[in-house]
Amino acid sequence: QGYQGMVDGGDNIVEVSWESVSSILQVGGTVIGSARCKSFRTREGRLQAAFNLVQRGITNLCVIGGDGSLTGANLFREEWSGLLEELAQKGKIDAEAVKKYAYLNIVGMVGSIDNDFCGTDMTIGTDSALHRIIEVVDAIMTTAQSHQRTFVLEVMGRHCGYLALVSALACGADWVFIPEYQPEEGWEDTMCVKLSE
């Protein structure tokens, strides 16, 4: 469950084997679990997470997520030595552990369907989301045609219009709204003329 599992520890931190990941290729990436973690935003939460990792001898993390996850990973890395020293002062770990686990290595992978992270061509999850959108449009197209109605489809993407734009292109949409390009005054009339054509 992301950082929540790291803070909670216990059975949330397990070693995976080939059997653990068998038959998951066809499901979404969040099969490994995902959770927003308020406690990791606090130093106390990060201290508990550090303790749980040191207990298991873990000093390498692969963080897959968006801005919040990667910002949290960087903060955790910056605080790591201080967290270990604090754990030693509280008597939770010994000086040898502080020395042994002195460095925290992090690999950050951008996982966000929004495709809104600078420096990446396409974030993990974007392509899968686009495929899902196209499947949905294909499924409702015949219904729209048989009812002779215009269907409005809203897609995710937060402040980034990438998914909306490329899915509109891929599906042959007649009209698209994206956050980066606000509609001009009188767009309703222009849209109605376009759709009636």
Descriptive account of the structure:
- The chain is mostly helical and 197 residues long.
- It folds into two domains: 2-110, 3-Layer(aba) Sandwich (Rossmann fold), CATH 3.40.50.450; 126-196, 3-Layer(aba) Sandwich (Rossmann fold), CATH 3.40.50.
- Helix content is 46%, strand content 6%.
- The protein has seven helices and two strands.
- It has helices at residues 2-8, 43-55, 67-89, 95-100, 126-147, 162-171, 187-196, and strands spanning 60-65, 105-110.
- Strands 1-2 form a two-stranded parallel ribbon.
- Helix 1 packs across helix 2 (43-55) and helix 2 packs across helix 3 (67-89).
- The mean pLDDT is 92.
Helix/sheet category: mainly alpha
- What would you report as the Rg, rounded to the nearest angstrom? 23 Å
Overall outline: elongated
Q: In CATH terms, what is the architecture of the largest domain?
A: 3-Layer(aba) Sandwich
- The number of helices is 7
CATH class of the largest domain, named Alpha Beta
Contiguous low-pLDDT stretches (5 residues minimum) are none
Physical arrangement of strands within the biggest beta sheet: 1-2
Helix share bin: 40-55%
For the largest beta-sheet, the strand count, sense and barrel status come to: 2 strands, parallel
Strand content: 5-15%
